[in-house]
Design goal:
Layout: E1 8-12, H1 15-27, E2 33-37, E3 43-45, E4 48-50, H2 52-62, H3 79-86, H4 97-111, H5 116-126, E5 132-135, E6 142-147, E7 150-153, H6 154-160, E8 167-173, H7 182-189, E9 195-198, H8 203-211, H9 216-222, E10 227-230, E11 233-234, E12 237-238, H10 243-249, H11 256-262, E13 269-273, E14 287-290, H12 297-315
Length: 316
């Protein structure tokens, strides 16, 4: 167990963030952890409401995640997709049979006016997760990208077009009018909060949709706990996904320091990989260097302990 005695709040995207979220879940008293998920990837497809990052966290924390694909459920089957393809249906966004049940049940409950937070809370309870899992907002926030091929919804860019278009601008449609989930704001305002952890997710499309919600950046600056961010960049490269490509296309340096500067207005401690010691040497925020690549479960737990130790030290 970690030395943290009070609640810990983590902000996360999908696969990379979920790895650290799992490490935190395993080293903390699990009921003290709250994980807030990126809402910007959510979309409607085949008449279903799909929340990719929430579901990745749900499956990861419950041990149902698919280690081979990195997304979806373990032991997945694909009968639905095969039948859909045979009928000429849209098959670019793959929904496994078990994963499909999550989307169908969520959509059914949303249509009878149950909140997304209540639905996810019930799902995580049924799957044996003791931590709290929250959408950043109940209101729709949708990541859209202006590219060299025109405006694209995020899933079209990310899945259908395999991140190939050049990104020229990113917007979060609906964020200005969206309300942060009340329990999220309450967690940030809790005087007993011991740490806020920004997981190693893409800062531009996984964390920024959360930060774009009204009042969130201010709440992070004013919260009682130190804010610790973990770099998603190792040795000038992204561990997974289009982070480095997008940063370069938007004119940002592709290095760990650029991510720290992205969070400069609320960041208290930055955790970067040992390979990036030179890149982060000039930062005006305390830096902890460690091994940040999470290949094994032990790696996830070790990084989580390092992050929590940095938070403990920052509180002294």
């Amino acid at each position: 167990m970690s030395g943290a005695e009070g609640p810990v709040l983590a902000l996360s995207g999908g696969i990379g963030g979920a790895k650290l979220a799992l490490g935190l879940y395993r080293v903390l008293p699990p009921e003290t952890l709250t994980v807030v998920a990126n809402p910007g990837d959510d979309f409607e497809h085949l008449g279903l409401s799909i929340s990719p990052d929430l579901d990745t966290l749900l499956y990861t924390l419950s041990g149902l995640d698919n280690p081979d694909l990195g997304w979806g459920r373990r032991g997945e089957t694909w009968t639905f997709m095969a039948a859909l393809e045979a009928l000429g249906g849209e098959s670019w966004f793959r929904l496994g049979d078990g994963d499909l049940a999550t989307h169908v049940e969520r959509t059914r409950r949303l249509r009878v006016s149950e909140s997304l937070s209540a639905i996810i809370d019930d799902f995580r309870s049924r799957l044996g997760i003791a931590a709290q899992l929250l959408p950043a907002s109940e209101d729709p926030v949708r990541t859209r990208l202006r590219t060299n091929q025109g405006w694209l919804d995020f899933q079209d860019y990310f899945v259908r077009m395999h991140c190939e278009p050049v990104v020229e601008e990113i917007v979060f449609a609906g964020a200005d009018a969206a309300r942060p989930q009340p329990d999220f704001l309450a967690a940030l305002a809790d005087p007993g909060l011991t740490a806020v952890v920004i997981c190693p997710s893409n800062p531009l499309i996984s964390i920024d949709p959360i930060l774009a919600l009204p009042g969130v950046r201010t709440a992070l600056r004013e919260c009682a706990a130190p804010v610790i961010a973990v770099s998603p960049i190792i040795g000038g490269k992204a561990v997974k996904g289009p982070t480095a490509k997008m940063m370069a296309e938007l004119g940002l340096p592709v290095d760990a320091a650029a991510v720290a500067r992205h969070y400069r207005d609320f960041l208290d401690v930055y955790v970067a990989d040992e390979a990036d010691a030179a890149a982060v040497a000039g930062l005006d925020v305390p830096v902890v260097l460690t091994r940040t690549l999470m290949v094994s479960l032990e790696d996830r737990e070790a990084l989580a302990r390092t992050v929590l130790a940095a938070a403990d030290q920052a509180r002294k």
